[in-house]
Amino acid sequence: MDGAGSGSKGHQSSSANPDESTRAEDGYAAGVAAMLNERALSGAFDHLLVIAAPKTLGELRKHWGKPLQAKLVGEIAKDLTGQSADQIVTAIDKA
């Protein structure tokens, strides 16, 4: 029984790291949304296309203000990190 308990303890401690990572990612998305909200209000852009990983896009949506939402012309729920400019253009064209 002691061996099972210590294995379970190890599992609990390793599962804490994804929670911290999730909080950090959610906080980052909230910060990006805040910056976009400010820029939407200041008139920095008229139209916005957002491309983000699905989970990040969901978190961004939670924080978008009405002025920003009015300027959104589209969303692409896809992680394009590390993709070339040509690959990103292709993803936009397919959307």
Spans of at least 5 consecutive residues whose pLDDT stays below 50 are 1-15
What series of H and E elements makes up the topology? HEHHEH
Largest sheet: 2 strands, parallel
Gyration radius over CA: 19 Å
Distance linking N and C termini: 54 Å
User: What's the total number of strands?
Assistant: 2
Give the helix/strand class. mainly alpha
Given the C-alpha coordinates, what overall shape results? flat
In order across it, which strands form the biggest sheet? 1-2
Number of helices: 4
Q: Kindly state the mean pLDDT as a whole number?
A: 86
Instruction: Provide the domain count.
Output: 1
**Helical content band:** over 70%
Strand content: 5-15%
Q: How are the secondary structure elements laid out?
A:
Blueprint: H1 2-42, E1 48-52, H2 54-63, H3 66-71, E2 72-77, H4 85-94
Parallel strand pairs: 1-2
Helix pairs in contact: 1-2
Report on this model:
By secondary structure, the chain is mainly alpha-helical. It has one domain. 71% of the residues lie in helices and 12% in strands. It has helices spanning 2-42, 54-63, 66-71, 85-94; strands at 48-52, 72-77. A two-stranded parallel ribbon has the order 1-2. The longest helix is centred in the first third of the chain and has 41 residues, at 2-42. Residues 1-15 have low confidence and may be disordered.
